């Protein structure tokens, strides 16, 4: 079972990517956040799917 907040962040990351097309100078910060989210998801995967 995945954590609800991870699923929520995935949903919001899609929205953030859409919004970044309006503010391209913020894209690097957004990319860093998405990378951090990906790393969290990978770290949580073993405990959620034994």
What does this structure look like?
With 50 residues, the protein is an all-alpha fold. The protein has one domain. Helix content is 78%, strand content 0%. It is built from two helices and no strands. The longest helix is centred in the C-terminal third of the chain and has 22 residues, at 27-48. The model has no long low-confidence stretch (mean pLDDT 77).
Topology:
Blueprint: H1 4-20, H2 27-48
Essential attributes:
single chain, 50 residues, mainly alpha, 2 helices, 78% helix, 0% strand
In short:
The protein is mostly helical and 50 residues long. The protein is 78% helix and 0% strand. It has one domain.
The strand count comes to 0
- The figure for the number of domains is 1
Number of helices: 2
Ranges where pLDDT stays below 50 over 5 or more residues in a row are none
Based on secondary structure, the structural category is mainly alpha
Could you spell the SSE succession in H and E letters?
HH
The helical percent reads over 70%
Outline type:
elongated
Rg from alpha-carbon coordinates: 12 Å
Cα-to-Cα separation, first versus last residue: 10 Å
Main sheet: strands, sense, barrel: none
Percent in strands: under 5%
Average predicted local confidence, pLDDT: 77
């Amino acid at each position: 079972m995945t954590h609800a907040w991870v699923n929520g962040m995935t949903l919001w990351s899609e929205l953030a990517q859409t919004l970044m097309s309006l503010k391209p100078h913020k894209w690097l910060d957004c990319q860093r956040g998405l990378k951090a989210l990906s790393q969290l998801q990978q770290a949580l995967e073993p405990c959620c799917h034994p």
